[in-house]
Amino acid sequence: MAFDPVLLKRNDGAMVKCAGDWEARRAELLDVLSREEYGYMPKAAPVECETLSKNNDHYGGHGLAEEMALTIHAPLGDYRLPLTLIKPDLPGRLPLFLFLSFEKELYQKYFPLQEVLSRGYAVALIHYKSVSSDDGDMQNGLAAVMPRSQDGTGWGKLTLWAWAASRVLDAMLLRPDVDANNIAVIGHSRLGKTALWCGANDERIRFVCVNDSGASGAAYARGKDPRGENVRIITHHFPFWFCENYQAYVDRENDMPFDQHYAVAACCPRFVAVSSASEDYWAGPESEKKSCEKASEAWEICGLKGFDAGADARVSYNLRDGIHFLSLEDWRFYMDFIDERRGVSW
Questions:
Q1: What does DSSP assign to residue 44?
Q2: How far apart are CA 191 and CA 196, in angstroms?
Q3: What is the mean pLDDT of each run of 10 residues along the chain (346 residues)?
Q4: Which CATH number fits domain 19-341: 1.10.1040.10, 1.10.260.40, 1.10.10.10, 3.40.50.1820?
Q5: Burial class of residue 2 in the structure, from the number of CB atoms within 10 Å of its CB (0-12 exposed, 13-18 middle, 19+ buried)
Q6: In the sheet that 315-320 helps form, which strands lie side by side, from edge to edge?
């Protein structure tokens, strides 16, 4: 018999009935996603951050970039992660994007630098391959100094990249120019999956911005468009993104004791924005929207507006024309979403 995951049903069979019950259920969601899909998130480790150089030539002299080195004192040794922080030349504490990036450069196709800075945002750019390679080598970069369980629940690369983003946030929150109350994480495609998982786990992140994340990200797996990616395909090509237990659900999505709305709901009571592209059948726009709709129950049981188009909604979905891409339109959607909610209690 296929399993139908009920978001508000506790492992003991009891239903979540009020906001006071939610945190215990949220812990169960994170546990099943860790055990069966992504692998368990390692415990936090101490960090030290050093500024190596500064350059204020960006955005017509209105943007200051700092090249930094983040030393992570991991369990098996230290790892030095390169990091770029760019911010507008403005006083006070600034909202911050943790940007999980495919490229090291500030000037790149996925990052409209001038637009983001002109909106008053600082950005910590984290090049994902500087954390660890995007392959099955579990002994390079940060992976070399991080213990990994061999019982099927050990972290996959998505979890390692997400964990590294949280260590960057450890350092950023010590800065007098970062607004700790308005931290966002953003990523596209595989890094959209990473951003969602990072935001689900790290409660210091107020805004979780998930772009074209598709299968094993924000896309609901059950009943997904057959033109889209599924568990069989993604675990065949990218098994190292996940824990080994995830392989058990090849061609068995209907038997999973979870679905991807669990990851969206684990961000409750914080804020989630998901953007899809109309021609991105591989990711599955309708399935990404479906997860937003089904996750909405979490916010509603807490007395909050969940999925909706209004400015008071804590879950918002955007469908733009076009293909698989992190576009200027997507960035504007996320910044508008954040700007409308920065003063809202959370």
A1: P
A2: 8
A3: 87 97 98 98 98 93 96 98 97 98 97 97 98 98 98 98 99 98 98 99 98 98 97 98 98 98 98 98 98 98 94 96 98 98 85
A4: 3.40.50.1820
A5: exposed
A6: 47-58, 63-74, 77-88, 122-127, 94-101, 178-188, 207-211, 271-277, 315-320
317 within 8 A of 289, measured Cβ to Cβ: yes
- Contact between residue 271 and residue 312 where contact means Cβ atoms under 8 Å apart: no
Q: Which two tokens stand for residue 334?
A: 């996320």
Q: Report pLDDT for 29.
A: 98
Instruction: Look at residue 309 in the predicted model and tell me its pLDDT.
Output: 83
Q: What CA dihedral angle connects 110, 276, 343 and 311, to 10 degrees?
A: 140
Q: What span, in angstroms and rounded, lies between the C-alpha atoms of 337 and 97?
A: 13
Quick one: residue 61, left, alpha or beta (phi over 0 = left, psi -120 to 50 = alpha)?
A: left
Res 1: pLDDT: 52
Q: Among candidates 295, 303, 302, which has minimal Cα distance to 6?
A: 295
The tokens describing 331, both together, are 């960035």
Tokens representing 204 are: 């210091």
Amino acid identity for residue 101 in this structure: S
Q: Give the per-residue pLDDT at 2.
A: 74
* Residue ranges in the chain assigned as alpha helix (H): 19-33, 113-118, 128-131, 157-172, 190-201, 231-237, 261-265, 285-301, 328-341
Strands 63-74 and 47-58: antiparallel
Query: Tell me, what's the pLDDT at 346?
Result: 73
28 — alpha (psi -120 to 50), left (phi > 0) or beta?
alpha
Q: Give me the pLDDT at residue 344, please.
A: 85
Q: Where are the domains of the chain?
A: 19-341
Rounded to whole angstroms, how far apart are CA atoms 343 and 142? 36
